[in-house]
Amino acid sequence: MRFREKRLTKSIINLTPMVDMLFLILLFFLVTSSFIEQPNIKLELPSTKYASTSKIEERVLTISRDGKLFFQNEPVERKNLVSVLKNAFSKQDDKTLILRADKNVSYGTVVDIMDAAKGAGLRRIVAPTILEPEKQP
């Protein structure tokens, strides 16, 4: 009687498809990560419960409830805002404006002021908020 010899076959795991998939996933994250970032505009709501507070009081632009502008507590006309901001930030390395607006100011007014600040060459706009006290039940 003749028996067949059993051939030993080695199982080899081919890693090439797995490496290809890892490179595709890496490429996907590299391409899509640039779309997640909000460019140059950081905006907080006028009052928050959990945001951290900041004590920065330099270069502050204030918008009152009736839409009047004050830069460092001096009244400013809307048509002169770009030139005032350019002059104030011309010798500054940190081009950050603190924008304090009343919570009842219209969104369009705030966007117009942010656009003027961008036109003056400012890189960052920070909108400070007031921390709401926690309510006890």
Automatic annotation (TrEMBL):
It is found in: Cell membrane. Keywords: Cell membrane, Membrane, Protein transport, Transmembrane, Transmembrane helix, Transport. It is a single-pass membrane protein; Single-pass type II membrane protein. Gene3D superfamilies: 3.30.420.270. The keyword Transport applies. It comes from the Bacteria. InterPro entries: ExbD. Belongs to the ExbD/TolR family. This is Biopolymer transport protein. It comes from Candidatus Brocadia sinica JPN1. The lineage of its organism: Bacteria, Pseudomonadati, Planctomycetota, Candidatus Brocadiia, Candidatus Brocadiales.
